[in-house]
Design goal:
Layout lengths: L8 H13 L10 H28 L4 H4 L15 H5 L5 H15 L21 H11 L11 H19 L10 H11 L7 E3 L6 H12 L11 E5 L2 H13 L5 E4 L9 E2 L2 E2 L4 E4 L10 H4 L19 H10 L7 E7 L8 H11 L3 E6 L12 E7 L9 E6 L15 H13 L7 E5 H6 L21 H28 L5
Parallel strand pairs: 1-2, 1-6, 2-3, 6-7, 8-10
Antiparallel strand pairs: 4-5, 7-9, 8-9, 10-11
Helix pairs in contact: 1-7, 2-10, 8-9, 8-14
Length: 500
């Protein structure tokens, strides 16, 4: 057994941040992830492979052939394609990397095919050999074996880097990153437990699925029970690859498919969509040209939930897809939508009324504006259940969380204690002045099935209340202060023979 010094999370974060800094100047910040993550993953699996090889060698008393057997390795790495082989190249490094990536993918068709993405490693205008050599040498300064970096630590560092890239690219980050406090809120509400299946149809870099792992662990459960139970679909190739890496680096194997979910759902049996215990997503807000024409004759029957959404707004199409993908008894859904989806008319109003009257809506949670990358819109969270608990049937909980945020220079944040306040309101499922209200379906139908939160929960007036006496006292204090300042000024001017 090779003994290697452990790398702490702060050390690993600093190491990865330094690698990203080496790309500055030649690559757009929004594209950093397409290059850094494949390199990082390649270094990790190479170092783990060599670690496994050394352990097998020791176990077998030096039998090199035994040490290469597939059963001794999580992933196969062909001869000539480990990290050190690429490091030996002083020119055409991008081509060497690309070759190693493709050979490793081919050697692991079930688990790693396409995982390194489609970045152009051979463009020397963007990535000259000098810059790639610096990157390779930087990554070579630390061993990233399991002995050096536990999967939990590596996974957390990976998430740190995803957030760092999101902060730097901001607008483009909305395509793949949901603020982790919001992710945590959604997963805490759904409360997945050991052995349950979870599906994210717009999974981005896999943050929702990673949070499921953390949630189960925090509850004392074993992440091993989630093996093969986590599913995601993502349209963008590079982003779906990052999500797959993310799960693997957290020590759990899931199923992430790169495909357009609304047009071509990836998980099904025959003519029926696969169904899951929990379905959670932050899909793109008000997606245009999402496949409305095909939806009218949708073979999966998603349009049976109230009809066809409008061409320019896919929000309720995501809701229809997610409800159809939830199990009839245990199925629960959490989806982030723009607040306009709560009250817009036309086809959306028809679908909204259908879902409401079918008693699938359990809660509507309003969030503050400017919480999400790339948009200042205020969002909401819809919580839906295929089968509600008896005590909640015929009712909908409205939570107004618009005042729960910490203001930032470029973006607001939902702080952990604020997220806990929303979670507590959801769990209480009761009226709370300025925060929540439980409405029955009759009340909502009187409002035309409009789910605009302000119809049900007026925001609490958090301004300080002043009486007339308070105002007069403050005025008198201000006058006294002004008189005092005036006297001090006149005294200072008198010293200089001047007058005010």
């Amino acid at each position: 057994m090779i003994h290697t010094a452990r790398i702490t999370l702060p050390e690993l974060e600093q190491y990865l941040a330094k690698a990203a800094d080496l790309l500055r100047g030649s690559i757009d910040q929004a594209d950093f992830k397409a290059y850094i993550f494949p390199l990082m993953f390649f270094k990790r699996i190479s170092d783990v492979y060599l670690e496994e090889f050394a352990d097998a060698l020791e176990e077998s008393g030096g039998d090199h052939e035994f040490a290469t057997f597939a059963e001794n390795h999580r992933f196969a790495i062909p001869e000539g394609d480990v990290w050190a082989d690429v490091r030996n190249h002083s020119e055409n490094i991008g081509a060497a990397l690309q070759t190693a990536f493709r050979e490793i993918e081919k050697a692991n068709p079930e688990t790693l095919y396409g995982i390194f993405g489609n970045a152009n490693w051979t463009n020397k205008d963007k990535l000259p050999d000098r810059k790639l050599a610096d990157l390779v040498e930087h990554f070579s300064t630390k061993t990233l074996s399991n002995a050096a970096v536990a999967p939990d630590v590596f996974g957390n560092a990976y998430e740190y880097l995803i957030k760092r890239f999101a902060d730097q690219s901001n607008k483009k980050a909305g395509e793949y990153y949901t603020p982790r406090s919001v992710v945590g809120l959604l997963i805490n509400i759904l409360n997945p437990v050991e052995g349950e299946s979870v599906y994210d149809p717009a999974c981005g870099t896999g943050g929702m699925l990673i949070e499921v792992i953390e949630h189960v662990k925090a509850a004392g459960g074993s992440p091993n029970t989630l093996w093969g139970k986590l599913y995601g679909q993502e349209k963008v190739l590079a982003t779906s690859a990052i999500a797959r890496m993310n799960l693997l680096l957290h020590g759990v194997e899931g199923k992430i498919v790169r495909e357009d979910t609304l047009r071509s759902p990836a998980f099904y049996t025959g003519n029926h969509l696969a169904q899951f215990d929990c379905v959670v997503a932050n899909p793109p807000f008000s997606l245009k040209n999402w496949g409305q024409t095909e939806w009218a004759s949708d073979k999966w029957g998603r349009n049976s939930l109230g009809g066809v959404p409008p061409k320019g707004y896919a929000d309720w199409a995501w809701v229809q897809h997610m409800l159809t993908s939830a199990r009839p008894t245990t199925g629960r859904v959490a989806v982030v939508l723009p607040q306009g989806a709560l009250f817009r008319g036309g086809a959306e109003a028809k679908i909204r009324a259908h879902v409401l009257k079918a008693d699938k809506v359990e809660a509507v949670i309003g969030l503050a504006s400017n919480l999400f990358y790339g948009t200042s819109w205020a969002a909401c969270v819809l919580i839906l259940r295929r089968t509600k608990p008896d005590a909640r049937r015929g009712k909908v909980l409205f939570i107004n969380g618009e005042s729960l945020f910490r203001r930032g220079r470029n973006q607001n944040t939902l702080e952990p204690d604020q997220a806990r306040s929303v979670l507590a309101a959801y769990e209480a499922y009761d009226d709370a002045d300025g925060l929540s209200h439980v409405a029955d379906l009759t009340e909502i139908e009187r409002n035309g099935c409009d789910l605009n939160i302000s119809l049900y929960v007026a925001p609490a007036d958090t301004r300080e209340k002043f009486t007339l006496g308070d105002a007069l006292a403050n005025l008198e204090a201000a006058r006294a202060k002004a008189t005092e300042s005036r006297a001090a000024l006149e005294a200072e001017l008198a010293k200089w023979g001047l007058s005010a």
